[in-house]
Design goal:
CATH architecture: Alpha-Beta Barrel
Distance between the termini: 23 Å
Largest sheet: 8 strands, parallel
Radius of gyration: 17 Å
Number of strands: 8
Order of helices and strands: EHHEHEHEHEHEHEHHEHH
Number of helices: 11
Oligomer: single chain
Helix content: 25-40%
CATH topology: TIM Barrel
């Protein structure tokens, strides 16, 4: 099974002027399941995970409703205010949808670099653990020390670093995170960070560094479509990923391209 573990769907009117801005013309439009499904079929992708992009429960419910009517959407990573006094109740309400498999705060957009290193998150984390939900970490390099403290405080919470931490991450910080068995890493967002003119040769040292830190059983592949369209076509990223991971054996590639996502997000389980 091949799974794209990081994709987005959005409707511009519902975003009320939030990102993406008009100057990003390639992605300044609506993106719907009908735009995504042909890409998945053309490239042999068996399922996809939708990930939140605005900090909105309405957007999360929008994605969860889409998942109910589109079987290729296997999981949703949503958003709620994890520090709200009623965060556990909010999480439980969203988790009534079977396809909710994780939550993601918008850490890269928050002014407080240490937002995640806060004991006030404990009630929300306890509810996530009770419901089998995972934590997607949308972070920049400056957030990694706080994320490390959070991951150490909650060793039973499954955490995945999105977009390999926006790849200019500090080696010492990622090494400490990678040493924790509850932390995984998503191979996504690389070409967008590298920008137009990226090459496999330019990406290979970044990928090799991540492979050195995380074994292939803790790497999860994703495209970050449609943000990917700023730098590459969907098929280009698949071809590049195949080349970047050519040094792995067949079992390791199968793990990175789908089996790890299925296991990490608990797709084998149909109950909470």
């Amino acid at each position: 099974m091949r799974i794209d573990a990081h994709q987005h769907i959005w409707q511009l009117p519902a975003r009320a002027g939030a990102w993406p801005p008009p100057e990003l013309a390639a992605i300044h439009r609506d993106f719907a399941p009908d735009d995504l499904q042909p890409l998945l079929a053309a490239h042999g992708i068996d399922g996809t995970f939708l990930v939140q992009s605005p900090p909105s429960e309405d957007d999360t419910r929008f994605m969860l409703d889409l998942a109910q009517s589109h079987p290729f959407i296997r999981a949703v990573v949503g958003w709620t205010d994890l520090k709200a006094p009623d965060a556990p109740a909010r999480i439980a309400a969203l988790a009534m949808y079977r396809t909710l498999r994780g939550l993601r705060p918008m850490q890269q957009d928050l002014e407080d670099d240490c937002w995640i290193d806060d004991p006030r998150l404990a009630p929300a984390v306890d509810m996530m653990l009770a419901l089998g939900l995972v934590f997607d970490a949308l972070v920049l390099p400056r957030h990694l020390p706080a994320l490390l403290a959070f991951a150490e405080r909650h060793p039973d919470l499954r955490i995945v670093i999105d977009h390999i931490g926006k790849p200019a991450m500090g080696r010492a910080d990622i090494a400490q995170l990678a040493a924790l068995p509850n932390v995984h890493c998503k191979l996504s967002g690389m070409v967008t960070e590298a920008g137009v003119g990226w090459t496999v040769a330019r990406l290979q040292p970044v990928l090799d560094h991540v492979l050195d830190m995380f074994d292939p059983q803790r790497l999860i592949w994703g495209s970050d479509w449609p943000v990917l369209e700023l730098a590459a076509r969907y098929g280009d990223w698949i071809a590049a990923s195949e080349a970047l991971l050519a040094g792995l054996d067949d079992a390791e590639r199968q793990a990175v391209f789908g089996l790890n996502a299925k296991r990490f997000y608990g797709l084998e389980s149909t109950s909470r």
